[in-house]
Amino acid sequence: MEREGGILRTSSPATLAGLLAAIMVAWGLVMWPAMTMHTGSMHSGLVHLMMPGTAVWTPTNVAAVFAMWSVMMAAMMLPGAVPMVLLYRQLVARRQPEVARRRSILFTSAYLVAWAGYSIAATGMQWGLQAGLVLSPMGVLTSPWVAATLLLTAGVYQLTGFKDACLTKCRSPFGFLMSAWRDGDRGAMLMGLKHGSWCIGCCWALMVLAFVGGTMNLAWMALLTLLVTAEKVAPFGATISRFTGILLIGGAAYFVLLAV
User: How far apart are CA 45 and CA 119, in angstroms?
Assistant: First the structure.
């Protein structure tokens, strides 16, 4: 059977262009409120809704924060999912080229729905941190102890067997698609949800670190994006994952030293 790399090299330019456009739009939506906040317009309109200064949230605040996290997850996780989506489209196009575009869209949408589910938990965590008075209006942890706890949790998780298992699924698009294959539109959505679930298992702890560097810190968001993408697509992604775990544990020790 044709190697994954060969299939990816013959992928649809339109599909690749669509994915790149979606990534650019998502990053544009992430950059806009972040840049607005950094220019001093903290209390302007939607930005204030997405980053409420206190834990007294209205339903509108909850919806805005959830939307913010959903867009952030799309911007940060879609780059690493590009090989999987392109390969899925190629496999569908071999048998049913007339539905390949639609099903690749369904697959990608379901993948993002899975991350929207994660965004619900992230929204609740942001509210909890604000209620505990350990999160600044810029989305940065103000407690070195809490920061150390998140860094240690993420660092240790990077070294676990479950992380390795989830990362293997993300790093092997052909293996995942062959083992999880389902026909039809419903199958495309189920596979997208399943891939998203494996991806959450792989990256949830790293995404929580958004609170350490700041949810509105574009450089920090870009760094995390590069990290999770490298884990999935770089030749030595598993080694990168373990090395990152060691660095994060060291970072936790640094924050403990700050606290004592």
Answer: 22
